[in-house]
Amino acid sequence: MDEDLKLEIDECIKVLRDGGIILYPTDTVWGLGCDATNKSAVEKVFALKQRSDSKSLITLVADADMLCRYVKKIPEMALDLIEVNDKPMTIIYPDAVGLAENVTAEDGSAGIRIPKNEFCRQLIKKFGRPIVSTSANISGQEAPAFFEDINAAILDAADWVADPVYEEGSTGEPSQIIKVGLNREISVLRS
User: Fold this and answer.
1) What band does 1 get if pLDDT is binned at 50, 70 and 90?
2) CA distances from 77 to 65, 83, 93, 151 (A)
3) 87 lies in which domain range?
4) 19 CB neighbour count, 10 Å cutoff
5) Cβ within 8 Å of residue 152, ≥6 positions away
6) What span, in angstroms and rounded, lies between the C-alpha atoms of 89 and 112?
7) What is the dihedral of CA 72, 107, 85, 166, to 10 degrees?
8) Among residues of the chain, what percentage have pLDDT more than 70?
């Protein structure tokens, strides 16, 4: 890891540990994030987005090992999808554990993605916990594909903002969302 990236990640982790909100590039669009295990930090994200907290949020994990710590039982089909998919893909897993209750859906499921963005993966790996990833916009407005698309109110409200150089490789498009059940049932919610 180069020194600039290391310093950037260290600053970001301090904010995450203090329950702050980060603004960062993902493998899809720019996201608002926080510690996905911290209920009060998640509440701040909902307030900033002016979004109902009855909706669940996408969570990012560094790798399959971290995924296993936050889902009771990972459907085998999900692991196959992760392995073969070449687009950013969020999978909705049944029976999430260890995440803040306001991150998960009412049925206990959670949308989780392993990002292909190097900055994200390094950040999450070093932080050691999943982070929330919701589009960096006020609810109802268009998701910002790239840094220059982010609303000034969002920029001002974030406790930490990533250097736009780390958006390299982002698609600028939301991830596909697939719900996978334990009995091999699959539903494509967004392709």
Assistant:
1) low
2) 16, 10, 11, 38
3) 3-190
4) 16
5) none
6) 9
7) -90
8) 99
Number of neighbouring beta carbons within 10 Å of residue 185: 10
The number of C-alpha atoms within 13 Å of 40 and in the hemisphere containing its C-beta is 5
| Burial of 28 per CB tally in 10 Å (0-12, 13-18, 19+) | buried
How many domains, in total, are found in the chain? 1
pLDDT in tens, 143-169: 999 999 999 999 999 999 999 999 888
Contact between 31 and 41 under an 8 Å Cβ cutoff? The reply is no
Kindly report the CATH number assigned to the domain that includes residue 107. 3.90.870.10
Q: pTM here?
A: 0.94
Q: Looking at this protein, which amino acid is placed at residue 28?
A: T
Measured distance CA(116)–CA(87) in Å, rounded: 9
Amino acid, single-letter form, for residue 110? A
**CA distance to 60, 158, 162, 163, per residue, from 11 (Å):** 19, 13, 10, 12
- For 45-78, the pLDDT digits (tens) are 999 998 877 678 999 999 999 999 999 999 888 9
Closest CA to 73 of 190, 177, 184: 184
Q: Which two tokens stand for residue 162?
A: 């990533």
Q: What is the DSSP string of 60-107?
A: E-SSHHHHHHHBSS--HHHHHHHHH--S-EEEEESSB-SS-TTTS-TT
